[in-house]
Amino acid sequence: MVAKIIDGHAVARQVREECRERVAALQARGIQPGLAVIIVGDNPASQVYVANKVKACTEVGLKSTVHRFAADTPDREVEALIRSLNADPEVHGILVQLPLPPQFNVRRVLETISQEKDVDGFHLYNVGGLVLGNTIFPPCTPYGVQKMLEYEDIPVEGQNVVVVGASNIVGKPMALMLMQKDATVCICHAKTRDLAQLTILADILVVAAGRPNLILPQMVKTGAVVIDVGINRLPDGRLVGDVDFEGVRQKASYITPVPGGVGPMTVTMLVHNTVQSAERLVPAEQLAEA
Ligand code: NAP
Questions:
Q1: Is 55 among the domain residues?
Q2: Distance separating the N- and C-terminal Cα atoms of the chain
Q3: Rounded distance, CA 140 to CA 269, Å?
Q4: How is the chain split among helix, strand and coil, in percent rounded to 5?
Q5: Is the per-residue pLDDT at 281 higher than 90?
Q6: Mean pLDDT, to the nearest integer, of 43-57?
Q7: Ligand 1 site: residues with CB under 6 angstroms?
């Protein structure tokens, strides 16, 4: 068996096209959806991520504004900006690019964002909503994975799902979202004993550990769906995921590549969440007419 490659760019294109149409419908009602992005310091990877987010917004007609702060900015100053953005009717989404410099209380900064504009889905309220199955904004990376599964019509209900990685931004919300779809979910982390004994049971294996070659073919069930969220830069400059792509694709039914898999979906779901936030200003019956 050779796996079908799930093309993240193709799925992202489809979602962005839908977003473009929804933005046009909002503009026709005099609403210009807007995203505010806050970046602190000069982390090169963060600069690239922010540039990609701005580009994705422009592509669908969203207005984006980037607020830049020096690395030694006191956290209260950033929180003051967030409060003014919370009150700004032209801003529908607020995103703080992580990581923040060490003097920042990251949790407090994220809690300052209004839950109504928390398009990254990291506010405690949205995380709680995820647990109850009614979050306003699902976090972008796991939401992107869910969209990829839907795009390929891969059933989730009743499937054994193993999520490798238990971070607050990927692993844990991913597990909750798939549980909500009636999968049987197991979460693994760095202290999991005998990872292979668990991954081999997975009908759907989602890997987000940040460890190149963590998942080898002998750890994967024949016919499994393998979603590789990991992004790792090797010493020779190559970008790879957490999965031995060439080996595992001989065994899986579906697999996502790195790059070109989950990556394009993360930024796309940010755009999607921002559009959805702006749509909340329009009465439901008017949206139905559009
Ligand atoms: P993170 O906060 O470092 O969390 C990594 C998780 O993996 C932790 O739960 C850790 O366990 C677990 N882990 C580490 N080594 C492991 C091992 N050997 N076996 C099993 N579990 C192990 O990372 P993250 O932010 O979730 O990101 C994970 C990866 O996804 C990174 O490569 C990141 O670059 C990538 N990522 C990609 C996208 C995208 O758009 N494609 C978005 C976000 C992140 P402990 O909890 O026990 O430490």
A1: yes
A2: 44
A3: 5
A4: 45, 15, 40
A5: no
A6: 95
A7: 141, 164-167, 169-171, 188-192, 195, 208-211, 214, 229-232, 262-263, 266
